[in-house]
Amino acid sequence: MKLAHIICLAAALGIGGLFNVLNLPAGWLLGGLITGIIYGLFIKRLNFEGWPFRATLALVGVNIGFMMESELFYLIGHYFFPLLVTLILTLAGGVGIGWLMNHWTNLDPLTAYFCCVPGGASEVIALSSDYGADNRMVAAFHTARITFFVLSIPFLVGFFYPDGMRVAASGTETAVVTAGTMIGFGTAMVVTLIVYRFLKIPAGTLFYGIITGFIISEWVLGANASLPSYIGGIGQAFIGVMVGIRFDRPTLIKLKEIGKPSAALLGIYFLFSLSLALIFEWLTNLPYVTSLLSTVPAGAAEMSSTAIALQLEPTLVSSLHIIRVMVLMLFLPLLVHVIKKAAINQKP
User: Does 3-346 carry CATH code 1.20.1530?
Assistant: First the structure.
């Protein structure tokens, strides 16, 4: 990692910390995101792919694992049917919005669909070129979608949940950290990265981090193991800056190629996500804001970080997102086959 990367991360921490002190919703995350956007648009696009991003995912995952309680496994089973319903609707919604993009723009059907695949952005962008889609356009639209969602959802949550936001924003938990806790935390991160190196699955780093963090905190360190809130804040700021910096000038140029439909499609995607959360809330009786964070297709790591920042069931939110991404990756080849067949049939 070069000096420019370190300066950028330090700026994200500084601005994120300032936003947190000012009680802005999800201050650490938004501070990092805005720092990344400014860097990407006006200074320089830095590449945080590879081990820096994986290490950040491991940090966020392990932090969630330390918060996790064994009752979560029962809750995931309890929410199986609502999750199944929303998964089906999410996949159908992605296909429908992709169909709109194909008909409103000059993009080919495969590129249009990959632009609108609901989640797993990193995996989808990597796979899109293998299937013959324009991965530059796919990357641009996914970057715009995730950036827009991460910017808007904390403020939307603040609108629906103002009392909880005040509690979350004013939280200054400063748990006493022992040397054993920090050794356990660091060990969990290292184990997470090693496991992912040899067994890569969608959203794997986050998933392994949660499981490893839970095992070490629950069965090695015991119930007294706790982390201060700034640990999660650091992870949120790093996630924010690494997402925001992708929104650079080439991304804007690609979005301009699509034109006005790109804004309309982002709006449709957002309204679809709000409606999906209503259905999940109705099926589970969970609060609407928790349902929104659990179902919105805006990235497992990003929504998990948002849930940590807003103190809204981060372990449940992250678990449901990881399941969604895994199911999506399983069904992706079938969906691509169907779309390819439909594209051939619609040719004159």
Answer: yes
Q: What is 6-27 written as a DSSP string?
A: HHHHHHHHHHHHHHHHTT-TTH
Q: Which of 9-23, 104-118, 179-193 has the lowest mean pLDDT?
A: 104-118
The answer to whether 107 and 134 have CB atoms below 8 angstroms apart is yes
Q: Which two tokens stand for residue 234?
A: 């650091």
Q: Is 216 in contact with 188 (CB distance < 8 Å)?
A: yes
The answer for residues whose C-beta is within 8 angstroms of residue 194's C-beta and 6 or more apart is none
| Domain ranges across the chain | 3-346
What are the structure tokens assigned to 227, written together?
Answer: 């982390």
Do 291 and 284 touch, CB atoms closer than 8 A? yes
> Cα separation of 64 and 62, whole Å?
5
For residue 47, the 8-state DSSP code is -
Written as six digits, the tokens of 249 are 């000038």
State the Cα–Cα distance between residues 225 and 297, nearest whole angstrom.
Answer: 32
From CA 15, how far away is CA 241, in angstroms rounded?
Answer: 11
pTM for the full model?
0.80
